[in-house]
């Protein structure tokens, strides 16, 4: 079957993604109510009891809102690093000891034939991470909520076939928006979120012939729009001399209110 995934929903109000290889199905984050997560799973014909576990990127509410209820309802193991566990324990409630799993930052773990590796990112959380997923020669990377892409982040995701990558905001929309300046400064800072332009700059460094598709994720509903994100990311790539044909590389949308279609990583 190979590696496939769907971004169940992504944005400033909630985030969850499914990764599946026919043997194992994992959810990354659970940033919605348990009821909403069940609805999103049903839209992709998955039942909660079919999940094999939940991976957590960090403890902010738009990533863990439904984590405790979903994990308890379906008796699921939850994987996070120690600092994230400490930061989120009060928010998610009691998780049985046997389901409290530690996956250290930079650690790789095999779930059957699916290998998962975490890597550190820059965000204002206890110890935030992104994840790479491997099935044979296929590689998918999920990387949102980062203020900037360090050399280590670039190395972690560089040889991916498909990326789920943050394009959070348009800088001018954010600057002109209604948020207080301290929040704007946080978003724009190195521990905040990637702008469209920063995402385009990053992709221009990474595009090497292997990356086939990038899903633009975690878009702000206040300070971004899908059409604008795609146009700005592509423009930033072209400004840096990175031109491509749609047959070679595609930018794709994610949605705050519905899942993306299942996408098989190996598909061209």
TrEMBL record:
<dbReference type="InterPro" id="IPR052533">
    <property type="entry name" value="WalJ/YycJ-like"/>
</dbReference>
<comment type="function">
    <text>Counteracts the endogenous Pycsar antiviral defense system. Phosphodiesterase that enables metal-dependent hydrolysis of host cyclic nucleotide Pycsar defense signals such as cCMP and cUMP.</text>
</comment>
<feature type="domain" description="Metallo-beta-lactamase">
    <location>
        <begin position="13"/>
        <end position="218"/>
    </location>
</feature>
<protein>
    <submittedName>
        <fullName>MBL fold metallo-hydrolase</fullName>
    </submittedName>
</protein>
<dbReference type="InterPro" id="IPR036866">
    <property type="entry name" value="RibonucZ/Hydroxyglut_hydro"/>
</dbReference>
<dbReference type="InterPro" id="IPR001279">
    <property type="entry name" value="Metallo-B-lactamas"/>
</dbReference>
<dbReference type="Pfam" id="PF12706">
    <property type="entry name" value="Lactamase_B_2"/>
</dbReference>
